[in-house]
Amino acid sequence: MIPLQLGRMSPAETERMLAFDRDHIWHPYAPMPATAPALPVVSADGVRLTLADGTELIDGMSSWWAAIHGYNHPKLNAAVTGQLGKMAHVMFGGLTHPPAVRLAERLVELTPEPLTKVFFADSGSVAVEVAIKMAMQYWRSQGRPERRRLLTVRGGYHGDTFGDMAVADPFNGMHREFSDVLARHVFAPVPPLGYTADPDQAYIDEVAKLAAEHVHELAGIIAEPIVQGAGGMRFYAPEYLRALRDIADEHGLLLVLDEIATGFGRTGELWGCDHAEVVPDIMSVGKALTGGYMTMAATLCTDRVAHGITSGSAGALMHGPTFMANPLAAAVASASIDLLLSRDWRTEVDTIEAVLTSELSGAEELPGVADVRVLGAIGVVEAREPVDMAAVQDLATAHGVWLRPFGKLIYTMPPYVCTEDEVAHIGSALHAIAESLQPSA
What we know:
This protein is of the alpha/beta class. The protein has helices spanning 11-24, 62-65, 74-84, 98-110, 124-141, 162-166, 201-214, 238-251, 303-310, 327-342, 345-359, 389-398, 420-436; strands at residues 41-45, 48-51, 56-59, 115-121, 149-153, 186-188, 218-223, 227-228, 234-235, 254-258, 282-285, 297-302, 369-375, 378-383, 401-402, 409-412.
């Protein structure tokens, strides 16, 4: 048996664990059995992961963008253990509890003012699924069931469930394998690249025309604000997000924003939509919500949406996860929000942006690099060709950093609590990887 209390492990114990892992455990977007070994993490503290052999790596990924405060934080630990002594879980159907109410209060306070209703989900994918369901059920309740499609842009990613996959890029995204069985939505071209780029009015006109052509069947517009995450780590100008709001208003459509990856300060503003000073009708949040401690997400909507749904024949939003509003997750989520707001998180994120920009300077001129971009606490090196994931990870770990590339992208989203030296260390590793990239002849 693998020891349950993991500390530094012997080589034999490590090999036994990795052999079982390889042959029996699925990992994200990985074959079975695995063709590359996973790194065995036995503990994490601050911004460092400790492997079974004692090696320490700076986590440049924040556990897929969630662990913004780092690991083993005493205030977050206390929130979990304090709640554990009272109640680990209770069903949310017909019951409520203080952690859920407090968290909902915090979310209503922090999100744009019209978002007053909170639905708790158990993952970011489910939160977006709920957002899609809200938009569609709203129109069904208004006697317009034909308005069941969404307008979105190519290059997006919204999660791995079927509703989410259907609004991701159907041809170039990770879920193109399922394009023939997914709901058919309306796709505009990928937004022009560049947060500070001048807006292309022709592009905006093209999206507006597409919306006008399909307005009779559209329930709303869905997008990731400012940053398209796992679909390509692309940054686009705030003017395009404002245009989506204007188009939605012109046709009475609901604007749905997926803030799972962009929320809680990652882009340099508290919410991605703050860059454009727009307010969505429905918004999903997750990832950093609990500081990376537990899986939890939420979908917020306006009074108009909530009342519109409830006025229909169903009389309720038809969704209800078993672990909805889990007290442990709600307690640590409130503590994570309090911790974020107690620090100068904006300066932390601005510092990460400045250091990454400095460390990656000149990388865009390397022969294997197509583009380098930094926004907030996000740094991206885009290769000219798909990278060898295992080779990139080996090079990163040799530099004492954990990174997880995909496709042509080598990127970092560090914990906000990284020191300047730690961010520089991550940036240096990224630059070294960029130097190693060689385009094919």
